Amino acid sequence: MGAALALGERGRGRTAPNPNVGCVIINDGRVVGRGWTQPGGRPHAEAMALAAAGAKSRGATCYTTLEPCAHESPRGPACADLLVAAGIARVVVALRDPDPRTDGTGLARLAAAGIATQTDIRAADAARAIAGFLTRQRHRRPHVTLKLATSLDGCIALADGTSRWITGPDARAHAHLERSRHDAILVGRGTWEADSPALDVRLPGLEERSPLRVILSASRPHPSGALRLPRSPGGRGQVPAGAAGGKGEDNIWLTSPAAISTLPADHLLVEGGAQTAAAFLRANLVDRLILYRAPILIGGGTPALGDIGLTDLAAAHGRWRLHDARQLGSDRVEVYEAA
Amino acid sequence: MGAALALGERGRGRTAPNPNVGCVIINDGRVVGRGWTQPGGRPHAEAMALAAAGAKSRGATCYTTLEPCAHESPRGPACADLLVAAGIARVVVALRDPDPRTDGTGLARLAAAGIATQTDIRAADAARAIAGFLTRQRHRRPHVTLKLATSLDGCIALADGTSRWITGPDARAHAHLERSRHDAILVGRGTWEADSPALDVRLPGLEERSPLRVILSASRPHPSGALRLPRSPGGRGQVPAGAAGGKGEDNIWLTSPAAISTLPADHLLVEGGAQTAAAFLRANLVDRLILYRAPILIGGGTPALGDIGLTDLAAAHGRWRLHDARQLGSDRVEVYEAA
Predict the structure, then answer these.
(1) Which CATH superfamily is domain B1-130 in?
(2) Where is the active site (chains A, B) (predicted)?
């Protein structure tokens, strides 16, 4: 299941509105097929793994991070049916699919065909891996990660706005990898206009993983309305060709954090600045916090967050749980999840 | 030597202007004497350990964290002479004493008496343990630790000043233990007047370790001048009797960070607030930073630091080196040392 989870990560940020599932098929102790949801959402992980395994699927065990789907679509048959047809003997599932078209039905269809099934294996890890899909199912909006890069005293820039560089190259590379795991990146209009951030993925081999660029602006600069899709909305999770580093036409403009429900993205990374971060926190729309900290003091600089509407300290406690932390050169990254 | 270092910690914050040394005497594989510099600076660690060992000092090995002193004083004989007279066979020293009255002379006197000597054993740990003494020798001022207790976004209070409680009980107990290791605690006048902090050690059994209270105030409220000593300055490292929680007469008032050179203390803890912390950083007078961080976000609160005079980010890097970090309940403490 660990291998299946790792495979599922390959699709993260590129499969919305489908979940980024991973799948491994084992026959007689050997891996005979591996699959992960492809960009755009199809083929599904199980279909890809079954295709790779071919005849070796017969009598094999399939490990998949999400319950195989039970619904056909114009884009392909149901994975539960594919597994039955391939003669799979046993299916191990990390997490049941909350999509009402599948929820329990996928497992039931397998069991009805005589396939041994098992579920809730590393379910928490699977839920974390496909957080975008689950958040969309539950809350009808993307899963939101807020990124902050601060000094030890919580500043994101000098008083004059200078923020290059607070963190070192290892932390910055990690932040770019994190971008590649999201369908969309959002910044506030102030940051957009002040810093002209490219918001792309500048890692060798991952340039094509650059997410959609989204700009939060209450004043709505585009005449057509709150949300403007890029010219090639089909290329989900990729900046449309020729748009890298550009401005304007290929960006999505939003007038409020609540409008993120309309984004064609299931994993949204909010990158700044302090007022935009605060607006998402105030609206209780942050699911995950990724905090890069450099061992420097700035003093009197730009604080990481504007007003988040906190009125007493007791209310601040118990809202964030440390999930992961590691050293990146002289910096430290910490990942917190909403409790 | 590890045991000697631990014994030396017992005196930390109570031995100024003497170093807080630790000493262990071993004979035939057994500990026969232990000592540490007593409050006020005498007896010295070696004298205490020799007294405990008695006749078992003959032929024994003495481990001590600082070179035995070579100078007599009205308060006692030189430890090097005591070791010779006791018939010690071997002396292992962590660190040579930078005090010119001893520097090298202590070891030479032992060697001249036929005692085997060895030095530079865990020297870095010893230097850290007696940082106050070494800083006084080198810079003619106390060793300064700056304490900050912040949220993840670097706030030390809500916008309205509320700061109870950012950190949890484990972190607060650790902070009180840290107080007990200092001769003096300093806060700014604003913090003093706003919070009426007791600045004492509220840990069972350590109440008597409460340090001197020092208040930084440019406007110098006391008519007699920059520095007013408490009524019982002999009780170094202890709040004078009856003064706990009181205000005024028993506090020391300083007009600037530079005036700390006059304090009868070798370990000074600067506890706040943001302007006072910034004043010490601006004056380049912080040797050690102890940072308590709670997993909360405040947003728009009181930043940890005022202006420290930083004009570009490059100048901020490389100044602090992480020495220690640990989890305290849901909080984290990090200790940085000036590079």
Answers:
(1) Cytidine Deaminase, domain 2 (3.40.140.10)
(2) 46
For residue B232, what pLDDT is reported? 39
- Please state whether the peptide bond connecting residue B273 to the residue before it is cis, i.e. omega within 30 degrees of 0: yes
Find out whether A315 is annotated in a ligand binding site. no
Answer whether A299 sits within 8 Å of B306, measured CB to CB.
Answer: yes
* pLDDT confidence band for A76 (50 / 70 / 90): confident
Cα A161 to Cα A57: distance, rounded to the nearest angstrom:
58
Q: Do A154 and B159 touch (CB under 8 A)?
A: no
- pLDDT, position A337: 98
Q: Evaluate if residue B230 carries a pLDDT over 70.
A: no
**CATH number for the domain formed by residue range(s) B141-225+248-338:** 3.40.430.10
CB B209 within 8 A of CB B197: no
Instruction: Give CA separation, B166 vs A304, B22, B172, in Å.
Output: 17, 36, 10
Residues of CATH 3.40.140.10 domain(s) within chain B? 1-130
Entry pTM: 0.89
pLDDT surpasses 50 at B240: no
Tell which phi-psi region holds residue A220, choosing left (phi > 0), alpha (psi between -120 and 50) or beta.
left
Q: Does A151 touch chain B (CB under 8 A)?
A: yes
Structure confidence at residue B37 (pLDDT): 97
Cβ pair B96, B104 in contact under 8 A: yes
Buried/exposed code over A208-231 (b: 16+ C-beta within 10 A; e: otherwise)? ebbbbbbbbbeebeeeeeebbebe
What torsion, rounded to 10 degrees, do the Cα atoms A206, A207, A209, A214 define? 140
Q: Enumerate the CATH 3.40.430.10 domain ranges in chain A, comma separated.
A: 141-225+248-338
- Residues in A touching B303 (Cβ below 8 Å): 153-155, 300-301, 303
- Contact status of B270 with chain A (Cβ, < 8 Å): no
The answer to whether the CB of B291 falls within 8 A of the CB of B156 is: no
Interchain contact A62–B (C-beta under 8 A):
no
Split at pLDDT 50, 70, 90, the class of A241 is very low
Tokens matching residue A99: 């999509």
